Please model this.
Amino acid sequence: MTLSSNSFVGDSAPKVKPEDFSNWILFEDDDFLAMDKPGWLVCHPSKDGPWSSLVGACRASRGLNEVHLVSRLDRETSGVVLMAKNKKAASFAQKAVQDRRVSRTYLALMEGEFAENLVAEGWLGNDPDSLVFVKQRVTSRSAKAKRALTRITPLLLSNGYTLAAIRPETGRKHQIRVHSQWLGFPLVGEKLYGHDETLYLEFVENGWTSRLEKFLPMPRQALHAATFRLDASDRELAFDAPFPTDMRDFCIARMGLAQEFLEEECATFFRGEWTGPPKRVGNGDRLH
Model:
């Protein structure tokens, strides 16, 4: 099975088509490779060969012996991933992360409509009540819990959904997904941090099923790492990953947004010119 888009549905792990890999490259030089990762591809190498992960595909495509992930994304999250090609570049980037010189902004489709900016701040830790070992939850301060801060800005509201820009000020496991659920606006297509975590277990065991199709309006979580900025004293890096096709299609089909209008609003966001307040499309009317 091969992977060629963000809208992958199936019962086995996807593989990267070698001829598609170059289409995902946002930037490349001797030190770094920035990619627009599809929403159904793992970052870390797997046992299923080099073309089953982003790092493996990078090594195979570029003939590299080493690739260091500067940033990583969950399998179902699309968008910018930065990789370093050598230890010196990796060390430089890691220091920038530690010095809080790296920032990211995500675009997300969320269930429900909200017109005010949201902030989630507190502590995240393992969820002992979950059947899923990796699941996190908002918890109280403890030796194992980690502080997390997420800022969410609504952009477009329509038909019971919100397109939002999300800025995580910290980088905890599943942070945006946990905070979205905790605030009462889970991500569209969310299996683990949605309304029923057994959907996640069913997907792991059986792949995409009729039950998942019934309860999930998208086959993946609608989260996209749209921008990446590294601002260090001796080098700056800035990358944007275009709004993905599957999320665009959802906005048109389920939110009732006209394609031209949506493209204009996305362009405004990527130019950094969004000033708010959010724009509402009422009662399913298409906004032209």
Notes: Confidence is low (pLDDT under 50) at residues 1-11, 283-288. The two ends are 39 Å apart (CA to CA).
